[in-house]
Amino acid sequence: MLGDYLIGGRRAADISAGIERAVGDGRLKPGEVLPPMRELARQLGVNPHTVAAAYRTLRERGVIETAGRRGSRVRPAPATTGRDHIRVEVPEGVRDVAGGNPDPALLPPLAGVFAAAAAEGDRAPVLYGDDPVDPGLARAGRAGLDADGVPDGPLAVVSGALDGVERVLAAHLKPGDTVAVEDPGWGRTLDLVPALGLRTAPVGVDDDGPLPGDVRRALAAGARALIVTDRAQNPTGAAVGAARARALRAVLREYPEVLLIEDDHGHGIVDLPLNPLAGATRHWAFVRSAAKAYGPDLRLALLTGDTVTLDRVRGRQRLGPGWVSLLMQRALVRLWADGVVDTAGVAAAYGRRRDALITALARRGVPAHGRSGMNVWVPVPDETGVVARLLHAGWAVSPGARFRLSAPPGIRVTVSALTEDDTQALADAIASALGPARARGYV
Question: Shortest CA distance to 95 belongs to which of 428, 426, 434, 427?
């Protein structure tokens, strides 16, 4: 059952720590079944309550899952390892279209705005007890949210979209609660939820975003929260359209106590309008990241929501990091105010590259998805085989397993830096890698 690994320890903390280390270093594999609690207690000579406490800690940390009489097992993607282990190592000479990064050529220069922000800080240093949100950022951020139809609410600044999602989940939910998540969806979110001791309920996604029927089923089954990516959904590029937004709001109004979290990490790189869902439930949060448009190292996102949610988030933030650097906040304000980034031009550039690959694949009989953002999702019958054949052909793509719970297999291709010549060569390689499946009529 556990191969050569022997569980040891006399205290609950020692037992759980040993199992977690074994998962982290690969001695315990995803899916491996752990001994029943009474059996392990007998082997270790401890009280069954001690083993029960150890297993509870592992569940809360997202390392194991328990399925009734089927017992406890290591999660398919335990939080200890994360989905980053499901990736392709890019050898020298292989083109990397797996990383999900923006095109460095489309990112703005930061030296000038940071120098100006630092000079402002020299004149009036930020001290403990100062307002954690720069007034200029609050004004500009609120104006942008108003223009996009996001309801009014207090503002906080967090260290990126995922930090905001984590803080909101922790503010409302307790271990064992269920969160409805997009499937396929952002791998970090699919790791984060179980790492908080929460359960995931997969919700299918098409080009217009989450499927209302799947959302209704998940909420009816008891999911206490729903996470939605409004635009540039990772990995499919889905964007919530106006009709889909109306349908989702109608479902959410049937479950007013559900926590709604919206992720707009694609702000600034997407040329489609925002159709927010916020306000359809009592508790909601909306997070808007600066990373994709201005650079991944700019760890900053605006967070708004209902008063209770934001009060809890800001209160907990004060007890931890306190605030996100006002130096970064002021630099972002200058990026916005000075028009350093032509966001419409950036969105159009990504759109052209994305559409070019989808069109090239269609000409070769290969369907693909990507309404927005910088990624294209290609359904495949066998991820391992397709990824290996593409690697042999000189292209590193991302296996869909990094982004899936129960959704069908696929590969994610990041188009952000593709040229026209690259696009045609890559489309040829993908069509060739799918050759056996195409012959069987899979695509």
Answer: 426
